Amino acid sequence: MHRIIFFTVLLPFLFFISPYLFAKEKSGHKITVKVDNLKDSVCYLGFYYGDKKYLQDTASRNDDGFFVFEGLEPLEGGVYFVYNPKNLYFEIIVNEQQFDIETDTKDPVQTMVITGSRENQVFHQLQKFGIERQKQMTALKEQIEIHKANVDSVKELQYQLEQINNELLNYRKKLISENPNLFVAEVIKASEVIEIPETVGKGEETTESNKSKYQYYKKHFLDNINFTDARMLKTPVFHNKLMEYFDKVIIQHPDSIFAAATEVLTQAEPAEEMFRYVLTTLASKYETSNIMGMEEVFIKLAEKYYLNGKAFWVDEEVKNKIKDKVEENKPTMIGKQAPPMMLTDTLNHPVNLYAIEAKYLILYFYDPTCGNCKKKTPIVYETYKNLKNKGVKVLGVSTITDADEWKKYIKTNKLDWLNAGDPAVRSNFRYDYNIDSVPKVYILDENKKIIARRLGAEDIEPFLKNLIKTN
Predict the structure, then answer these.
(1) What are phi and psi of 308, to 5 degrees?
(2) Phi then psi for 360, rounded to 5 degrees?
(3) Ramachandran angles phi, psi of 358, nearest 5°
(4) 352 Cβ partners below 8 Å, 6+ apart?
(5) What is residue 19's DSSP assignment?
(6) What does each C-alpha distance from 377 to 18, 46, 254, 347, 410 come to in angstroms?
(7) Ramachandran bin of 301, using left for φ above 0, alpha for ψ from -120 to 50, beta for the remaining angles
(8) What was the pLDDT predicted at 109?
(9) Which residues pair with 343 in a beta bridge?
């Protein structure tokens, strides 16, 4: 069982480095590390997985002054790190299984000597080059700030800055082209920013040009990610790139997100571990999303993959729980017609949801005895008072069976909106509207279509004001 280790990163760079080889074995792994000026006698070996870091192994300094991480089984490929909480943190590529590194805490990159790992030698070259150029770029930025009043000087300094940045980009591309079979080339390539060719959108009107550029950017954003290589999961690149794609590149609408998720999962499906990671990550992301309506993505993913048996790792018990969750939430998704409710008012007269005429109808489910409801009800009522002349009505629905308690609550709080309940439990609204907690809010349009759900009491008024203004 891997243990999670949390720590403060002491260096601002990623160092992909390899150890200093003193002995080789035919199988298993052996990573030997010598660190000058490290006073502590313990080092840790860890690895990335998605957006987390895990501890792989611990090594004590031996009599020869080396830290040796070894085992009978080979390590899974990916980006690992060697760490000591006092003054040591650097990263390595694990692909070769026996390699060594010698370095110094005073300047780990410049003093580094690598033996036995072409992967880490290549990345170490890039790190040295990158750090040198970063120092130059930092100095130029400082000069730009100093001379910001002088337009000509700033222009020249910005030109120099651009030249250095291009030099760094070209160096990265050169390493990739010269080492196409190395995993480190995949890692470098995966972190590259997609460049939009100048020909895309050229000669079009501004709006169409921007649309063409966006379409190109979206289509090619993940081109450099190898979804069939599970080693990418053990890098600090993959998860961040995936989240950037779904959070910033794809239009934030359930249909667009689900279409993009399907495309990514199709690419990942040949690699079981990659497929499992992407599906569980996206399903969890949208099941628990704070963005209204995004649970629809989870429902669609569940129906397409989990409930059709494509999620091979899920047993029947979990599958049934997912099925129940889908069935509970699907009828009240945004865009669906609100399930009908036959309730009664305080005089035991029938209240038909579909007979209520309102431009916008707030369904406010609450429990008069609930402490949180007692805090939120006045906020909802204030919204009602502020917007009732805009065609907004509220149907306050009590979820308890104690009619006296319900009526007392209405009278005490002077709730003169539409009040309804079901003390005799003749309606199925608690299931139809998935009342697993209270208060719970839905907003319906004039045709009783759900246009918002699970809003907080404080969010109802700004949401409706914006909707009214837009319309």
Answers:
(1) -100, 5
(2) -135, 135
(3) -160, 145
(4) 340, 341, 342
(5) -
(6) 61, 50, 30, 22, 11
(7) alpha
(8) 85
(9) 351
CA atoms of 251 and 211, how far apart (whole Å): 12
Find how far residue 101's CA is from the centre of its chain: 34
- Measured CA distances, 281 to 240, 278, 315, 316 (Å): 12, 5, 18, 20
The count of other CB atoms within 10 Å of the CB of residue 55 is: 16
CB atoms inside a 10 Å sphere around CB 170: 10
What pLDDT score does 221 carry? Answer: 97
The C-alpha atoms of residue 384 and residue 114 are separated, in whole angstroms, by 70
What's the confidence (pLDDT) of residue 74? 96
Q: Indicate the residue type of 77.
A: G
Q: Is the dihedral of CA 227, 233, 238, 240 positive or negative?
A: positive
Task: Supply angle C-alpha 12, 14, 18, rounded to 5.
Answer: 135
| Helix (H), strand (E) at residue 398 | strand 392-398
User: How many CA atoms lie less than 13 Å away from 323 in the CB half-sphere?
Assistant: 10
- Whole-angstrom Cα distance, residue 353 to residue 351? 6
Q: How would DSSP label each residue in 162-183? A: HHHHHHHHHHHHHHHHH-TTSH
Helix axes 457-470, 371-387, angle to 10 degrees: 20
Instruction: Please name the residue that has the structure tokens 């891997």.
Output: 2
Give the model confidence (pLDDT) of 397-432 as tens digits: 999 999 999 999 999 999 999 999 999 999 999 999
Residue found under tokens 């100048």: 198
Query: 83-104 in b/e burial notation, b at 16+ Cβ within 10 A?
Result: bbeeebbbbbbbbbbbbbbbbb
Binned at pLDDT 50, 70 and 90, residue 2 comes out as very low
Task: Report pLDDT digits (tens) over 286-345.
Answer: 999 988 899 999 999 999 999 999 999 999 999 999 999 999 999 999 999 999 998 999
- Tokens 């990514």 locate to 264
Share the mean pLDDT of the chain: 91
Residue listed under structure tokens 């129940």: 324
Strand order in the sheet with 3-4: 3-4, 52-60, 42-49, 78-84, 88-94
Residues 6+ apart with CB under 8 A from 335: 449, 450
- Number of residues in the chain: 471
State the residue for tokens 């949208």: 286
The residue among 125, 135, 67, 123 whose CA lies nearest residue 92 is: 123
Pairing type for strands 418-420 and 392-398 reads parallel
